[in-house]
């Protein structure tokens, strides 16, 4: 069963008060992916809400998950879900916000450091390896001297919100491409300069 299954995790903080924040863009992208594959979320014993679907009829099986924990405690639920579905880290894709990328940019990588992202750091620690795919969704750096921790916990600006649907769509396209054609193909497409 597990050989065609992917665990796709959208990072963010729980509850409606955080839902529109930059830090929750991973969960926003996951919601867009769930919408595309007509999957509904339900509670899971791994302290997460989970939706299961096929990427396409007869295609790879997706387990879409949002940890119910706060961002910096994402690792526990992710580790439990990998165990529950009998998957290893090579079948894990994590969607998360990335301060070091300009807004409206998607980049992909597997392994390496966490770049100061506490959710990614906690997952790597909990599952014992940094070797999982990250779909890094650029939110840009805070303006002026604004603290990064404050910046990520603020809603997107009006101008950003206009572009946000296309950014989320890009993140989902990139995730689907990783699953269907592999990381290298997705990097080749999404790391190339593009016209908007």
TrEMBL record:
Q: What does UniProt list as catalytic?
A: 23 (proton acceptor)
Chemical reaction(s) catalysed: an N-acyl-L-alpha-aminoacyl-tRNA + H2O = an N-acyl-L-amino acid + a tRNA + H(+)
Question: Where does this polypeptide localize?
Answer: Cytoplasm
Per the UniProt record, the site (Discriminates between blocked and unblocked aminoacyl-tRNA) maps to 13
In this chain, tRNA is annotated as bound at: 18, 70, 72, 118
Q: Which UniProt keywords apply?
A: Cytoplasm, Hydrolase, RNA-binding, tRNA-binding
Q: What is its main location?
A: cytoplasm
At the top level, the lineage of the source is Bacteria
- Site residues (Stabilizes the basic form of H active site to accept a proton), renumbered to this chain: 97
Pfam families assigned: Pept_tRNA_hydro
Offer an example of a GO molecular function term for this protein.
peptidyl-tRNA hydrolase activity
Could you tell me the EC number(s) of this protein? Answer: 3.1.1.29
Q: Which residues form a coiled coil?
A: none
**Class of this enzyme:** hydrolase
Family per UniProt? Belongs to the PTH family.
Quaternary arrangement and interactors, per the entry? Monomer.
What is its biological role?
Answer: Hydrolyzes ribosome-free peptidyl-tRNAs (with 1 or more amino acids incorporated), which drop off the ribosome during protein synthesis, or as a result of ribosome stalling. Catalyzes the release of premature peptidyl moieties from peptidyl-tRNA molecules trapped in stalled 50S ribosomal subunits, and thus maintains levels of free tRNAs and 50S ribosomes.
What is the name of the protein in this document? Peptidyl-tRNA hydrolase
User: What is the originating organism of this protein?
Assistant: Lysinimonas soli
What is the organism lineage in this UniProt record? Bacteria, Bacillati, Actinomycetota, Actinomycetes, Micrococcales
Q: What gene is this protein a product of?
A: pth
């Amino acid at each position: 069963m597990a050989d065609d299954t992917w665990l796709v995790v959208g990072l963010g903080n729980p509850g409606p008060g955080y839902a529109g924040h930059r830090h929750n863009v991973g969960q926003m992208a996951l919601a867009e992916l769930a919408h595309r594959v007509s999957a509904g979320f339900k509670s899971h014993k791994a302290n997460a809400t989970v939706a299961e679907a096929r990427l396409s009829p007869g295609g790879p099986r997706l387990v879409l998950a949002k940890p119910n924990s706060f961002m910096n405690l994402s690792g526990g639920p992710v580790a439990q879900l990998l165990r529950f579905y009998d998957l290893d880290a090579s079948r894990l894709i994590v969607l998360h916000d990335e301060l070091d990328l300009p807004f409206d940019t998607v980049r992909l990588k597997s392994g390496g450091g966490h770049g100061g992202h506490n959710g990614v750091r906690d997952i790597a620690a909990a599952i014992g390896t940094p070797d999982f795919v990250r779909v890094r969704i650029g939110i840009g750096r805070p303006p002026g001297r604004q603290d990064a921790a404050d910046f990520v916990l603020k809603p997107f600006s009006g101008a950003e919100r206009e572009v946000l649907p296309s950014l989320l769509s890009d993140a989902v396209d990139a995730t689907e491409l990783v699953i269907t054609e592999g990381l290298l193909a997705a990097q080749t497409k999404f790391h190339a300069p593009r016209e908007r």
